Amino acid sequence: MTASKTLDTGAPVRRRRRPLLVGGVVVALVIAVALLSFVWTPHDPTLVDPAVRMQEPSAEYWFGTDKFGRDVFSQIMIGSRTTLYVGLVAVGVAAVIGVPLGILAGMGSRRLGELLMRGNDLILAFPALLLAIMFAAVYGAGTGVAMVAIGIASIPSFARLIRGGTLQVMSTEYVLAARAAGRRPLAIAVRHVLPNVSSLVIVQASVGFALAVLAEAALSFLGFGTPPPTPSWGRMLQESQELLAAAPRLAVFPGLAIAVAVLGFNLLGDGLRDRFDPKVEESR
Fold first, then answer.
1. I want to staple 63 with a disulfide (CB 3.0 to 4.6 A). Which of 72, 77, 95, 220 is the partner?
2. Alpha carbon distance 47, 37 (integer Å)
3. DSSP 210-245
4. Positive or negative: CA dihedral 209, 204, 100, 195
5. Average pLDDT, whole number, for the chain?
6. With bands split at pLDDT 50, 70 and 90, how would you rate the model's confidence at 204?
7. Residues 208, 91: contact at Cβ < 8 Å?
8. CA distance 169 to 228
9. Which of 80, 84, 203, 64 is closest to 147 using CA atoms?
10. pLDDT digits (tens, 9 = 90+) for 30-87
């Protein structure tokens, strides 16, 4: 009976770990490709060579060439670097601003918390695409505009999640004891609140990275993201539109790259959420 019970409880645990394992492997693969692109690519991804335009996949050109004669596989490699760079900065901006706002909203007075959350809702009314268009009209389209727009649009997700976690931490006995002992709010935030909501930050960062990958691709597709000649998965999709019937592979490869990256970060986020969720831990 004991062995049977062990087997019965072990299988769900392994199933919970699968998203974390699969997501970690996929994300590690994307990062490895991006790092490799710094030192090696099969061909120059920005080299225009009309003599080899529209080549089918071969031993020399693994994913073929596009209408300008550029190597598609090399562009995919450099595109992964661009996507990770934009996602990393955008998530960093959202976390650096959203986490302190969430802690302040959770630790401050009820009126202050409501005021910050209403401002949070106001930011939600401006999605990344709209913010990018607004910033592009003022500063011009570019990678920096995309990063800032995606980062600002992601702040509400961090702030709302961290506020909920902060409210839970503030009701614990050790925080109540610290407040009774006269500790300052800043000390409580740094020593007690921030360490206990760090798992939420990690999970939200992973999920936010997946959203940033999609947002960057969409902005580049519409011309508000990474400018040429720097390769971008979204712009590769945009350039392949007129050739969908003749050469669908030009859209398939960058589309698959986007899908795999988003899937990897989503699975990683789901796995981390299950790993850090106290309810899941209790059920193990």
1. 72
2. 15
3. HHHHHHHHHHHHHTSSSPTTS--HHHHHHHTGGGTT
4. negative
5. 88
6. very high
7. yes
8. 47
9. 84
10. 999 999 999 999 999 999 999 999 999 999 999 999 999 999 999 999 999 999 999 9
